[in-house]
Amino acid sequence: MTLSKTWVLGLACLILAALLPVAPAAEPPLAKEPVAKAMPLPYWIWRRDTSADVGLTQPAQPPCRLERTFDVDQPAASAALRLAADFCRASVEINGRQIASVEPYCPTINVDVTAAIKTGNNQIVITAESVAGPAAVALSVTLISADGSRRSVVTDDRWTTDANRPATSMGAVRSALWGHGRRPATIDPFDNYEQWRQAIGTPPAGNQAAFWTAPGYEIALVRTAQPDEGSWVSMAFDPRGRLTIAREDKGLLRMTLDDQRRSVVSVESINSDLEECRGLLYAYHALYVSANNSKGLYRLQDTDEDDRFDDVRLLRQFPGGVGHGRNDLALGPDGLIYAIHGDSVDVPSEQVTDFTSPFREARRGQRTSEGHLIRTDRDGQKWEVLCGGLRNPFGVAFSTTLGDAFTYDADAEFDMGSSWYRPTRIVQLAAGADYGWRGVTGQWPPYFPDHADNALPVLDIGKGSPT
User: Fold this and answer.
1) Distance between CA atoms of 99 and 126, rounded to whole angstroms?
2) Residues 6 or more apart from 103 whose CB is under 8 A from it?
3) How far, CA to CA in Å, does 160 sit from each of 22, 111, 116, 461?
């Protein structure tokens, strides 16, 4: 979709917002939280090998040692290290003390290194060993002094190699990838878990500052839900650019926007029967609906071309509970319709092809509490379970380049503080994978050695809600 016609629905506050582009800046603005100044970005660095191009793996290459010294003139109130290692395993020492060690393809890590920093001269050493690919490391240490001043030590050409030669720089890390200019996805353990309560009783038009927007976007209020319109839980644009909005109790509303797409000129009901439609998808001249409380996937069609859905057909019933239920729908790059379910919905076992392991409990006749991803064709004739072991994933999104599917899965808030707490997470939805959730607290730890299909998340985020 183009930026000029991208829109977003503020469901928690019951507002409809238009997401409009503003003039792009050369560099994204800093986060709205006050900071003293912009911190410098690290550079990807490695050594210059005489036998090969920078970072390219060659047989029997010795480990790469990179180091730098820096002075601290007053005790550090806090010091945070951030490390990314591409195509290499790496370890970091500060003043002879090992701080972190990562394996190849590990996500970027953050470590509190306050205890390792001393007043006076400090030394950081990175020891890295390349694997197949263009190896490089990037590191920053952000220091905050007792007086509130801050500075950063970053990887750049001031670092030296084991041959006491300058390290070779391969360019700065993109600012957005290093968390500069945008709010990070990570959540502080002390953040309010129930931030949605802040919206209760707050006029949405006067609370715009509560929203964080990506650089280049702004929010405009289009409509507030009227008393007779209920609570809104999902939305989709039809082929004519009109909004279809699902009420939380039951029914669907259709809203026609004005030419500037900044206000609603008419509202009509187009369905009054389907209950809590969490997933809406326009495809193949039809509206597909994942109706949670109606416990099924439906297809709505206008067969006589009078702009009304006269054919409402149940494609498949999905038994089970309704809490973590039948959620989002998406059209995959393969032309199939993807539906994602939470752990209240029974995993289908009949008239379905299951790509997961035949040794899973659900495949051996046991009833399990686990979310899953299922797909079907436009007529609901062929059904496939792609993966399981999720808790309560709400949406499905596809990579625009490779077509891989991703979701944001929920945590179990009642496990918070326990050693088995499983945070909200970004998950790549791979066929045959099992992401280990078994409700209520029967999930697999990620280190289980006897589950070869124990799929790990792309990113653990922390506390959150997966809408």
Assistant:
1) 10
2) 89
3) 43, 23, 21, 34
> Encoding tokens for residue 246?
């699902």
Write the pLDDT tens digit of every residue in 38-76.
Answer: 678 999 999 876 434 444 444 557 889 999 999 998 889
Per DSSP, the three-state class of 229 is helix
| pLDDT tens for each residue of 372-381 | 999 999 999 9
| One-letter-per-residue 3-state SS of 260-307 | CCCCEEEEEEEEEEEECEEEEEEECCEEEEEECCCCEEEEEECCCCCC
Query: Which helix (H) or strand (E) element contains residue 235?
Result: strand 232-237
Are the CB atoms for 446 and 436 separated by under 8 Å?
Answer: yes
Note whether 211 and 11 are within 8 A (CB).
no
Other Cβ atoms within 10 Å of 306 Cβ, number:
8
* pTM score of the predicted model: 0.69
Residue 406's nearest CA partner among 333, 348, 324 is 333
* pLDDT tens-place string over residues 175-227: 877 877 666 555 566 666 666 666 676 665 555 666 677 778 888 888 888 98
DSSP 405-448: EEEEE---GGGTTSTT---EEEEEE-TT-B----TTT-PPPTT-
Query: In angstroms, rounded to a whole number, what is the distance separating the alpha carbons of residues 134 and 167?
Result: 15
C-alpha to C-alpha distance for 293 and 276, rounded to whole angstroms: 6
Q: Give CA–CA dist 220/17, Å, rounded.
A: 5
Residue ranges of E strands in 52-179? 64-72, 76-86, 88-94, 97-102, 109-112, 120-130, 136-145, 150-154, 160-161, 168-172
- Cα–Cα distance measured from residue 432 to residue 434, given in angstroms and rounded to the nearest whole number: 7
Nearest by Cα to 316 from 384, 234, 250 = 384
Q: What is the pLDDT of residues 67-109, one digit of tens each?
A: 999 999 888 999 999 999 999 999 999 999 999 999 888 888 8
Summarised one tens digit per residue, pLDDT across range 431-455 is 999 988 888 666 666 555 555 556 7
Instruction: Check if the beta carbon of residue 429 is closer than 8 Å to that of residue 405.
Output: yes
pLDDT of residue 154: 95
Q: Is 199 helix (H, G, I), strand (E, B) or coil?
A: helix
